[in-house]
Amino acid sequence: MSQVNCLQCGALYSDREFLSSSLSSNECLDVAASTARVGELEFQIQRLQLENDTLSTSLKLSTEQKTTLEFELAQVQLDLKNSKGIIDDLRSTLSQIRTSDASQLQLDMQSLAEKLITETATRSEIEHAKIQIETELEELSARLFEEANSMVATEKKLRLEAERKYAILERQLTEVQDLATSQKDELDDLKSRLEQTADEKDKESAERIRMEKERDELEMALMDGSVSGSPRSSYRLSRSGSNRLSLSSVPSDSAYGSSYSDYEYGNNELELTFHLSDFRFEEFKEFLDTPKNAKNMYISKFIKRTITEDIEPAMRFESSNVRGWFQQRKLTNATQSGTLIIETVNSGSPVSSPVSTPCKKQSIPVASSDTCNLCLQHINTPIMYRIRYDDFDNEPKDICAFCRERLFSVCEFYTFVRLVHSGIIKGTPQRLYLEANRLRLKIFLGRIGSNVTTDGFDEIKESNALALK
């Protein structure tokens, strides 16, 4: 229940009491005016409270600003005090400088002047060195450009020369390929002919074995004295029995139609023989069974033994100590690879075109020296030779006929074993081994200077030497 305050008497009445009271109309108007006045006063009180709060906030901010300003004032006063101390120190120092001796100042000025002179001289030297370095840099730059231009010109010349050589090599390669094609055709033809004559050679071999048996029977009969007369040269006594084979008793089916199969000494014929139980023959059969590879060929025992016993002595020339190991090695590699070219020097014959055939003889009409490049001996034979390591070797070396025979026999042996190893030359191991021994014998004869063609008149044959006895 609400209460009403009477403005006249100040008494409080409840609503019922206020309504039930017998008030006059004037009194009611006074009460309404008093109520309006109370509302206005309450509104003013609220406004004053708001203003009081605003003023309190402003006072608080002003107090904080005052505190900040007082702190800043204290710092400024401290800085001012420090500045005054510094000013006092500077004034005392200035007074000391003013009261100091003038001679000390002169000495300091003189020292500074000397330092200035020294620094000036040093600067002059540095500037002079700088000028020299710049000058040298310009000279080096000019020289560098000159060398660069020279290198470009040289490179251009070398490129043109290389292109020219490439064209020449390409043309030579075409010629070599054509030559290889023709040689391949010839080899195919030779293979076909060898296959056609294989049966005939087998028949001849059987016939020769039969003749060998008859020869052995005849020799045994001669030894027993049952048959009188001297044996023929083709029926000589075999000292080792039935396991001995000779070159004359075994037909050769190699590609070499050489005239050195039989070496005649007077009225007797030198016949090559070997024993089937010889370990060297076993090594040769191992060589035939090795895989078809160039590296395997040169590591076989048979080739190593032949190189040690026959080829190395034949290739050991007097010029080895003069020409050096490298040149000797080039000559050895040329003989092994089949690139060595032997040219005949003949001033009266036309020039033959160089062909890249191993150990191929050619005639070239050029002036030559009188000393052999290998044995270092004077060449006094009507015929002489020159060697080149390959088709690209532009420095041929003069050699004599005796050194040529040694090189040619070595090349011939290497060519034979290469053809055998590649399967081009086929035959029984006995026939191939006898052919290899014949070539080894030819290497030995070339090494000792026997059976060498020199077109001279001072050659002495065994028949003539025996006739002089």
TrEMBL record:
One Pfam family this sequence matches: RAB3A-like_C
Low complexity composition-biased segments: 224-255
Keyword tRNA processing: no
Residue ranges with Basic and acidic residues bias: 190-218
Alphabetized Gene3D superfamilies for the sequence: 6.10.140.910
A molecular function (GO) term: guanyl-nucleotide exchange factor activity
Recorded GO CC terms: cell tip; Golgi to plasma membrane transport vesicle
Signal peptide (from-to): none
Keywords per UniProt: Coiled coil
Domain GDP/GTP exchange factor Sec2 N-terminal: 67-196
Keyword field contains Acetylation: no
GO biological process: exocytosis
Segments for region (Disordered): 190-255
PANTHER family: RABIN3-RELATED, SEC2P DOMAIN-CONTAINING PROTEIN
Protein known as: GDP/GTP exchange factor Sec2 N-terminal domain-containing protein
Organism (species): Basidiobolus meristosporus CBS 931.73
